[in-house]
Amino acid sequence: NAGVMQNPRHLVRRRGQEARLRCSPMKGHSHVYWYRQLPEEGLKFMVYLQKENIIDESGMPKERFSAEFPKEGPSILRIQQVVRGDSAAYFCASSPRGNNEKLFFGSGTQLSVL
Amino acid sequence: QKEVEQNSGPLSVPEGAIASLNCTYSDRGSQSFFWYRQYSGKSPELIMSIYSNGDKEDGRFTAQLNKASQYVSLLIRDSQPSDSATYLCAVNKGSADSGAGSYQLTFGKGTKLSVIP
Fold it and tell me: How far is it, in rounded angstroms, from Cα B79 to Cα B77?
C-alpha cells in the first residue's frame, strides 16, 4: 500500500541545466497536484493535473516550467534552464477526487541549484 | 494582507498542556479548512479538516472555525513531545460537498510547535 512516491529525493543541478521531478500518485488516485515550498515560506500551489490533462496551472511560472501526467507513468514536473531561485522543496500530492478534500503528500524532492 | 496568516512561533508548551494554534484568512468565500502537520524534512500530513462553524474533535485534536471572524484554530490536548512539528493551516475556496470551486489550497507559513518533556 505505497503512498505518493516522489523521486529523486534530492536533486542537484547547475544553473542552466534541466531538472525533472517525478511523482507517482497513490493507487486509485487520478488527481495530482504540485506544490513548491521555499525556505521559510508556505507551500505554494503550482499545478493540478488529471490523467493526460492540465486542469489548473495558474500557480506555475509561465516560462521554463512545465508539467505532465501521461496516461501511463508518473507525473513529471520539468524545469528548464534552472536558476538559483528555483532551489526549493517540490511536493507532489494526490487525491481520489479533485476537490482538495484530502490530499496525500509525497516526501518531496529537494532541488538545489548551484 | 496575506491570504492565510499564522504566527510562526516557535510555540513552546510543556508536556501534558494544551497547545493552541491560530490561523486567520482573508478570503470570505473560503469554504474548507485544513490543518496539516509537517515534521522537519518530511511531507505534510493531514490531521484535521473543518467546513462549518463550531468545533470538531478527533482524539486529542480539536479544530475550531469562526467564519464571521475568518479565524480557524487547532487545539492539541495532553501535548506530547511527538507533537513537536510545524503545523500548517490551509484554506480552500471551493465547497467540499459539491466538489466545485478552486483546486488550490492556500497554505500559511506554519507554526512551529515544541513540546517540552
Answer: 5
Q: How far is CA A34 from CA A76, B14, B17, B19, B70, in A?
A: 10, 36, 36, 30, 27
3-class DSSP state of A11: strand
Chain A positions contacting chain B at CB under 8 Å are 4, 33, 35, 40-45, 48, 55-56, 58-59, 91, 97-108
Which residue in chain A has the smallest CA separation from B9? A40
Q: HEC states along chain B? A: CCCEEECCCCEEEECCCCEEEEEEECCCCCCEEEEEEECCCCCCEEEEEECCCEEEEECCEEEEEECCCCEEEEEECCCCHHHCEEEEEEEECCCCCCCCCCCCEEECCCEEEEEEC
Give the number of other Cβ atoms within 10 Å of residue A105's Cβ.
Answer: 22
pLDDT tens track for B25-39: 998 888 889 999 999
* Residue that the C-alpha cell 496525500 belongs to: A104
Distance from CA of A73 to the nearest CA of B (A): 22
Interval B55-89: pLDDT, tens: 999 999 999 999 999 999 999 999 999 999 999 99
Closest Cβ–Cβ partner in B32, B43, B99 for A107: B43
